[in-house]
Every structure is written in C-alpha cells, then in structure tokens.
Amino acid sequence: MVSIEDYGNFETAWCPGCGNFGILKAIKQALVNLGRSPHEVLVASGIGQSSKTPHYLNCNGFNGLHGRSLPPATGAKIANHELTVIAVTGDGDCYGEGGNHFLHTVRRNPDITMIVHDNQIYGLTKGQASPTSEIGMKTKVQTHGVFNMPLNPLSLAISLDCSFVARGYAGKVSHLTSLIEKAIEHKGLSLVDVLQPCVSFNKLNTFKWYSERVYEMEDTGYELNNRVKAFEKSMEWGEKIPLGVFYVNEKPTFGDYLDVLRSGPLYKNKPAPEKVNDLIDGFV
C-alpha cells in the first residue's frame, strides 16, 4: 500500500508560508489516494519556484528549461504510456515563456496532467509582473503599475477545447487534492490552474484576498461538455472566484492516433522505420 512517506519529506528552498507547500501536499495525497507508487509517476518541470517541485518528490523527475515542461512530459508519455505523467509549471513558466508549448499541447491532447502554480508574479526572479498579474499591480519593474490585460488561462484553454479544465486554490488542500485526482484519472490533457499566493512578492493576491473571494462550485448549472457555458463561467473573476472543474470533453488522445503504441510501451518495442514517421507527423 502506498503512503505519503513513500514520496519523501525534503528540505525546500521555498519561503515560509509559500502557497507551493499546499500544492505539494495535494499532489502527494492525490497520488496516494489513487494508489500510484513513486516508480509509476513522472513529474516534469521547467524553471521557477513551482518547477522545484520534482526536487521535493521521491519519484521520477525531469527538471528542464524555462517554459519547457510540456515537451518532455509529452515525450515521456509516448515512450511509456503506462506512466502517470504530471507537468508542474507556473504562470510565467507556462503562460509566458512556454505559451507556445501550452497552445500546441492542448491541440495534441496527450494523456498528461498539467498543474500550474499561478501566483500572478515571477517569484524566482524576485517579483516581476507575470502574464496573469492584475492591472495596476506595482512591482520593482512595473513601478507605475501593470497596464497589460491579464491572461485568463481557463478561458484560453476552453476556447482551444482542452479536454479537462479546472481551477484550485493552494489554501484549500482537500479540494485541490480532489481536483488533481480527477485530472490524473481523466484520459487526455488536464489543466489544473492553482491560485497560489506568493507571500514574498505579491502583496495584492494574498491568502486573505483569495479566502474572501473563492468558492467551491458544487454545481456548475451546466453540462461539463458545454464549451460555451464553461467559457462564460471561466470569465467570472473579481468579488467571486469559482473553484472546481469547468470543462470536460472526452476525445481521442495523442497516443490513440499512434499505432506504434498498441503493442505496448514504446521503450519496450522498437518501431519499424515507417512507423517513426507517424510520431514525427504527430508533432506538426
């Protein structure tokens, strides 16, 4: 039987009180609840405070380049589709530096889970505005306040027909754990955008600020495969911020189109030369 202890307990480089601790706890608990042993799991990341997560988990890990958590995660799932693959990234790492990869990973729909630590700031580089920073937020660089419209990752994902779209909050660990479980069990690309207070550099979107606004959706009021209604719900932000699953669309995954995977994990079966072209064509 798998336990939390199996995933280790490591000293971290995160600030005391960082929202990342709640996300790490939720990831561990979700994997234990699903009965996933460490050797069955791969956590891939890019660069940033969020991307240190693989260092603090006793499982397979890949810490790569800035904005590049999704390509190795996709490649690993193709090589061994029996793995539970999680890409851990941040709002700057994924929606900024890695935005192009985000768009095309949604198109391909690999069977991986993407967990975005969305703290609305660049934490590792000490407090610059990120793609999701609020208009008017002042930073060391944006001294007169942010004037660019913040990216709405849920609306973007739903508009692209991402097959599973959800939002959690680092201050609600039990609820976040449940969302991550659902995301991992979903077959296809799952996005879990996690509101994650940065206690050192984001003095606007604090735990207090979020706790006064977030609420768990017990019933969305629409069928989860209704993309228009899901898009409308994703636009709700301000005095009330919904948490939960916004959109689910069951559809073929990237791996379903690859004949070379039908005889077992790719790493165990050397594909014929003509089959290699199928893999190459899939990345167009």
TrEMBL record:
Record-linked Gene3D superfamilies: 3.40.50.970
InterPro entries reported in the protein's UniProt record: 2-oxoacid:Fd_oxidoreductase (IPR051457), OFOB (IPR011896), PFO_beta_C (IPR032686), THDP-binding (IPR029061), TPP_enzyme_TPP-bd (IPR011766)
GO molecular function, one term: metal ion binding
Keyword 4Fe-4S (UniProt): no
Cofactor(s), by name: [4Fe-4S] cluster; Mg(2+); thiamine diphosphate
Domain Pyruvate ferredoxin oxidoreductase beta subunit C-terminal per the UniProt entry, residue ranges: 198-261
Domain Thiamine pyrophosphate enzyme TPP-binding: from-to ranges: 49-194
Record-linked Pfam families: PFO_beta_C, TPP_enzyme_C
Alphabetical GO biological process terms: cellular respiration; organic acid metabolic process; sulfur compound biosynthetic process
CDD domains: TPP_OGFOR
Alphabetically ordered keywords of this record: Iron, Iron-sulfur, Magnesium, Metal-binding, Oxidoreductase, Thiamine pyrophosphate
Protein name: 2-oxoglutarate ferredoxin oxidoreductase subunit beta
Organism from which the protein derives: Methanolobus vulcani
